[in-house]
Amino acid sequence: MLFEQPAQLLDREKNWREKNWEVCIVGTGPVGISLAMELERLGHEVLMLESGAADFDAATAADRRAEIVDPRRHAPMEIAACRALGGTSWTWGGRCVPYDDIDFMQRKFVPESDWPISHEEIRPWYRQACDYLLCGDDTFEKPLARELTHGITAGFVERWATESRVILKHRERLEKSERIKVCLNSTVVDLDLGAEGSSVQSVVVATPNGNFRIRAGQVVLATGGVETTRLLLSVQRRWPKHFGGVGGPLGRYYMGHISGKIASIVLDDPSTINDYDFILDSNGSYYRRRFMLTSEAQVQNKLLNTAFWPDNPPFYDPGHRSGVLSAVFLALAFPPTGRRLLSEGIRLAHTGPKPYPIAAHLYNAVLGAPRAALDVYGILRDRFIRKPKKPGFLVRNQGGRYALHYHAEQIPNPDSRITLSGELDRYGMPRACIDLRYVDQDGESVIDSHRVLDTGLRANKIGRLEFWYTQEKLHERVMDQAADGYHQVGTTRMGTDPARSVVDSDLRIRGVDNLYVASSSVFPTSGQANSTLLAVAFAMRLANHLTAVSGKPDYAALSVQS
Predict the structure, then answer these.
(1) Cβ neighbours of residue 240 under 8 Å, at least 6 residues apart?
(2) Which fold has domain 6-256+410-555?
(3) Which of 289, 317, 432, 480 has its CA 20 to 30 A from that of 250?
(4) At residue 110, does pLDDT exceed 90?
């Protein structure tokens, strides 16, 4: 098949409006693409609706705009989401991390932390998710040569996609598929739930040639947490008792992560940094080891889940006195160059606040030449010439001193939420109003987790932490770093109680027989992990569920093991 514009498709299929598709997937990001390919493998005919064009176009940013209540806390949706074939795979960094067993446990010190399924029920689907996300395999445990004590572990790794823009690898399969059809420039603006509101009768689609309707046996919303929530909130205006009722769980519990740096890690043996740098696996993908607290240590100390790894100091601070880091900063600070090196969200995180201290960085770069030039060449070679590309770089030093990056869980908070604003987009839909909130417990847990890690590092003779700020300033600095918008978790959460959840354990929206959500927005908690891998694993499980309920006799034997 070819990717077709709505008018072309309508011309070629005269019975388009009458056709009843088996499955309609709204959205073509990593989750939607993976779900479509898995449904194809299981014998289904799939229609995918994409609001954007075949390639990423920055000119569509206005379509993604949302009202942000506190711009310090949430990235602009113009850079946090992408409307194009491939969705946010155009801007995704490629990090693949599974959730941990403790994330699925109900913890008394984490409100609303109960999941309707266990980790064991989702764990088998990681393998297929890793295949579609191109990160090698589902081996996420690589124990150190010795077992660590005092509540810390370094036996878990993150894996990285060999090509983060997964659409570039899967485009040919989609084009040649006889079972998957992709319709571009097709924006879903409404769901017709019929007279009773119990099933999706049709999907209302806006195109450059006018609106039309799609009929499908099953409809899956895979447009990301914010956009999925916005569509459902719009539908809820006509059906106020749906999705938990107005003011209910829909749009609430909006979470991401809290991430940044407040300390250095100083290794007792500087050569052990080799264990914590990017390592090329035998399967051709990169992985990186992280420090974490054990489940027992988290529960004992009432701490949220957090991962740590040695990193470079902030690029934007010339106080690092590094010629190579200043040279990288200068390249990133110039938007035409920086946007070719990194996605806009990651670029802005590295360049920091304006005004930029350009003179100080120039001083570092000149003073560090020619060594800095050689290092920069190596970084660019590993990032853009060698295959697979290296996901990042770590500037080594003889003293074994590195910034320590943390990536931490945020508690579910019903007051952190997405609602609808009074502004309409060009399709007449209300824009999202995003109020992402962090609370004191989020920040206090980050600080206390650092302290438990420091004790463990010293006890195991690995090293120590040195905080960058006084005790009085630590909480303030952590909360200054509290911002997200890329990991959109919680607003259509799953659960067993209709008053506290939007979807059930099969991702079906309560009260609507044939409507599902495939998104990190169904997760009840955010964990320490980036959300893409688990969202795709849930999509694999959903594909199997849709196959089971379809009653396809020829494909009933296909399962996760096939």
Answers:
(1) 246
(2) FAD/NAD(P)-binding domain (3.50.50)
(3) 480
(4) yes
Q: Are 544 and 127 in contact (CB under 8 A)?
A: no
107-127 CB burial, b ≥16 within 10 A, e <16: beebebbbbbeebeebebbbe
Rounded distance between C-alpha atoms, residue 115 and residue 279, angstroms = 34
Residues 6 or more apart from 464 whose CB is under 8 A from it?
A: 265, 266, 268, 454, 457, 458
pTM: 0.93
Angle at Cα 306 formed by Cα 117 and Cα 142, nearest 5°? 80
Contact 291, 308 (CB under 8 A): yes
Contact 455, 466 (CB under 8 A): no
Q: What are phi and psi of 368, to 5 degrees?
A: -85, -10
- Which residue type is seen at 198? S
Q: How many CA atoms lie within 13 A of 68 on its CB side?
A: 17
Dihedral sign, CA of 478, 482, 486, 488?
A: positive
For residue 260, pLDDT beyond 50: yes
Measured CA to CA, the distance from residue 466 to residue 305 in angstroms comes to 21
In percent, the amount of the chain with pLDDT more than 70 equals 94
What is the reported pLDDT for 561? 43
Asked if residue 1 has pLDDT above 70, the reply is: no
pLDDT score for 6: 47
Residue 132, CA distances (Å) to 81, 143, 301, 365, 507 in order: 20, 25, 37, 40, 20
* Domains of the chain, residue spans: 6-256+410-555
Residue with tokens 């009202």: 67
Across 291-301, average pLDDT: 98
Looking from the CA of 509 toward its CB, the CA atoms found within 13 Å total 33
Share of the chain above pLDDT 90, in %: 76
Kindly give the pairing relationship between strand 210-221 and strand 202-207: antiparallel
Q: Cα(507)–Cα(138) distance, rounded to whole angstroms?
A: 23
Closest CA to 560 of 39, 43, 125: 125
C-beta neighbour count of 283 within 10 angstroms: 13
Contacts of residue 215, Cβ cutoff 8 Å, sequence gap at least 6: 18, 19, 20, 21, 201, 202, 203
Query: What's the pLDDT score for residue 382?
Result: 78
Return all residues near 374 (Cβ < 8 A) that are at least 6 apart: none
Q: Which two tokens stand for residue 352?
A: 């920091």
Distance of CA 66 to the CA centre of its chain: 18
How far apart, in whole angstroms, are the C-alpha atoms of residue 500 and residue 249? Answer: 5
Q: How confident is the model at residue 374 (pLDDT cuts 50, 70, 90)?
A: confident
